[in-house]
């Protein structure tokens, strides 16, 4: 991600008296054009960095500005170097730069910081999932830059049916959900969300974004995610579940389960959401020991048909 690169460039400037765009490009394994754009972005963000032209020129921090790590607390040092460990999602260049900064820490914190960097490993794959590597989508950097600079984007997009369109959007924020990335925007039709891996082109304009005064990305994403879940699971069924089975339902159904109150016979009322009647009946057919579906009638009929088929097959 571009944020990772900007941090890495800043740390590189602090380690060296002067760097060229070519040196930054080699260090971060990007093009020289991207390196120059990142250096310009640091200057636009208020970092005291400037360039000198001609032979022997390059980029420097004004006055040799450096980050004083002596003011870090022990907890802050540990938190910082968790980013440098193998569990981090940061780019390799960022992790390498942070590990080098360990040597700038006060001696009492150095051992704990080094331990923090090696204290945690994360494996984002679920059990049974394949080992496919999920790389950031092609236009993520350009869209993130447009969000930060607050400029509109001429966006090419291919929807789920393969239809391509072009439109101008006001980018408001970017969200990562699992391996997928989404761009939240304002358009002429209102708020829209685009999967970034379906973006076919992204051309920033010079026109400023019109951002709603009360816009909050986290709150907006919660609304979007809730609406997507409602569309994905429009069917609701009612059921009764034994107390012992509630935990099993939570594991299998997650947010699609709403737990109500207890009935006179000790069972618990639940509402379960699903995509369609037959699919949901198939999910619940193996839970007959704990759950009784009370409605709608078609789901009960599907369960009975599944039961009859199982008896016929295995009797």
From TrEMBL:
GO terms for molecular function: DNA binding; DNA-binding transcription factor activity. InterPro entries: CBASS_pafABC_assoc_protein, DeoR_HTH, HTH_11, PafC-like, Tscrpt_reg_HTH_DeoR_CS, WCX_dom, WH-like_DNA-bd_sf, WH_DNA-bd_sf. The keyword DNA repair does not apply. Residues 2-67 form the HTH deoR-type domain. PROSITE patterns: HTH_DEOR_1, HTH_DEOR_2, WYL. It holds the Pfam family WYL. Keywords: DNA-binding, Transcription, Transcription regulation. It comes from the Bacteria. The keyword Signal does not apply. This is Transcriptional regulator. It comes from Kitasatospora indigofera. The lineage of its organism: Bacteria, Bacillati, Actinomycetota, Actinomycetes, Kitasatosporales.
């Amino acid at each position: 991600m571009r944020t990772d690169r900007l941090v890495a460039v800043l740390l590189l400037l602090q380690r060296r008296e002067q760097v060229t765009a070519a040196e930054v490009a080699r260090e971060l394994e990007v093009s020289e054009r991207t390196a120059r754009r990142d250096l310009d972005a640091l200057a636009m963000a208020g970092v005291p960095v400037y360039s000198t032209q001609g032979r022997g020129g390059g980029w420097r921090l004004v006055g040799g500005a450096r980050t004083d790590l002596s003011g870090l607390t022990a907890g802050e040092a540990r938190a910082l170097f968790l980013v440098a460990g193998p569990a981090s999602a940061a780019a390799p260049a960022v992790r390498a730069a942070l590990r080098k900064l360990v040597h700038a820490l006060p001696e009492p914190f150095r051992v704990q910081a080094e331990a923090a960097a090696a204290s945690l490993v994360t494996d984002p794959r679920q059990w049974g999932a394949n080992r496919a590597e999920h790389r950031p989508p092609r236009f993520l950097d350009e869209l993130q830059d447009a969000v930060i600079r607050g400029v509109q984007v001429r966006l090419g997009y291919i929807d789920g049916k393969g239809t391509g369109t072009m439109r101008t959007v006001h980018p408001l924020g970017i969200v990562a959900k699992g391996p997928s990335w989404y761009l939240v925007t304002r358009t002429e039709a209102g708020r829209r969300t685009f999967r970034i891996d379906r973006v076919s082109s992204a051309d920033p304009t010079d026109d400023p974004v019109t951002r709603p005064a009360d816009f909050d990305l986290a709150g907006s994403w919660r609304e979007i995610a809730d609406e997507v879940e409602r569309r994905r699971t429009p069917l609701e069924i009612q059921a009764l579940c034994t107390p012992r089975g509630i935990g099993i339902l939570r594991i299998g159904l997650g947010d699609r389960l709403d737990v109500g109150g207890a009935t006179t016979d000790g069972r618990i009322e639940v509402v379960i959401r699903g995509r369609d009647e037959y699919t949901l009946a198939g999910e619940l057919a193996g839970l007959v020991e704990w759950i009784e579906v009370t409605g709608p009638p078609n789901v009960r009929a599907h369960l009975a048909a599944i039961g009859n088929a199982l008896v016929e097959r295995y009797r």
